[in-house]
Amino acid sequence: MTTVIVNGACGRMGQAVLKAVQEADGLELVGAVDIKGGADTGSLVGLPANGILVETDLEALLARKKPEVMVDFTRPDVVFGNVMTALAHKTSPVVGTTGLSDEQKAEIAKAAEENDTPAFIAPNFAIGAVLLMVMSRQAAKYMPDVEIIELHHDKKLDAPSGTAIQTAAMIAEVRKAHKQGNPDEFEKLEGARGADYEGMHIHSVRLPGYVAHQEVIFGGLGQTLTIRHDSMNRESFMPGVVLAAKKVCSLKGLTVGLDKLLD
Ligand SMILES: NC(=O)C1=CN([C@@H]2O[C@H](COP(=O)(O)OP(=O)(O)OC[C@H]3O[C@@H](n4cnc5c(N)ncnc54)[C@H](O)[C@@H]3O)[C@@H](O)[C@H]2O)C=CC1
Ligand SMILES: O=C(O)C1=N[C@H](C(=O)O)C[C@H](O)C1
């Protein structure tokens, strides 16, 4: 059994993870943290009460329970501190929270090595989104003019999404940086052409009704190719989270991306 705590347990993703961990063979929920503490981690997610209450002090829980894994779905502004605290206690972080900078990821990689404690980060745990990213990298070899449109619920804090940035980074592995569109184009309203990642444009839509969606549109001579992924609910991320929680302790250092865990 791999012992797991969930950080951000009262949130949209945290609650889905609480349920998935309690239902997964091979994982044992031993604690949970959220700034909104108090709830029973069973009854909070429609399971029988289990007496494991959501706590508010991560460090105290890590010291007391010594869990092997901490799954983190909190906020972009607190995730780095959570991960460093977990590593200092030799607990392996499995991180879904987006917004970590490249510099922060480098520090996490260093701390993982120094504490001999593996860490795992995935900007998206849905298998379909992982396939979209891998297929986009392949398509960009032949159709290097590309724009990304990501669409999310209107409670999302960060833009562009972690998935959109990771998709652009993977495309950039095979695509020479170049400006797209008319060399003389100009914006009549600021932001009309979206964010710029090495000449690729990324557009962020935020509306009630959406969960998590992304289109990658490639343009070529007389043709376009659109690859689209839709997460209809947060259960879509759970097989990936459970897989990472089971595998993280057998990894070395920092691993980024669910594609690295797939056969
Ligand atoms: N990698 C992936 O596949 C996915 C990643 N995400 C990311 O996960 C993160 C969370 O998303 P949601 O669950 O929708 O947000 P949410 O706002 O519903 O949940 C965040 C939870 O964290 C808690 N929290 C805030 N500060 C905290 C702290 N210092 N310590 C402990 N708990 C704290 C909040 O009280 C809240 O319950 C976002 O960054 C989002 O982009 C979301 C879906 C999938
Ligand atoms: O905030 C969300 O909801 C999601 N965030 C992740 C991201 O920023 O890519 C993953 C997924 O898109 C849902």
TrEMBL record:
Q: What is its main location?
A: cytoplasm
| The keyword Cytoplasm appears for this protein | yes
Pfam short name (any one): DapB_C
HAMAP family (alphabetical):
DapB
Positions binding NAD(+) in this chain are 8-13, 34, 96-98, 122-125
EC numbers listed for it are 1.17.1.8
Q: Which pathway does the UniProt entry assign to this protein?
A: Amino-acid biosynthesis; L-lysine biosynthesis via DAP pathway; (S)-tetrahydrodipicolinate from L-aspartate: step 4/4
Molecular-function GO terms, alphabetical: 4-hydroxy-tetrahydrodipicolinate reductase; NAD binding; NADP binding; oxidoreductase activity, acting on CH or CH2 groups, NAD or NADP as acceptor
Catalytic positions? 152 (proton donor/acceptor), 156 (proton donor)
Question: CDD domains this protein is in?
Answer: DHDPR_N
- According to the entry, what is the taxonomic lineage of the organism? Bacteria, Bacillati, Bacillota, Negativicutes, Selenomonadales
Q: Name one GO cellular component term.
A: cytosol
Q: Which top EC class is given?
A: oxidoreductase
Q: Where does (S)-2,3,4,5-tetrahydrodipicolinate bind?
A: 153, 162-163
Source species: Mitsuokella jalaludinii
Instruction: State the protein's name.
Output: 4-hydroxy-tetrahydrodipicolinate reductase
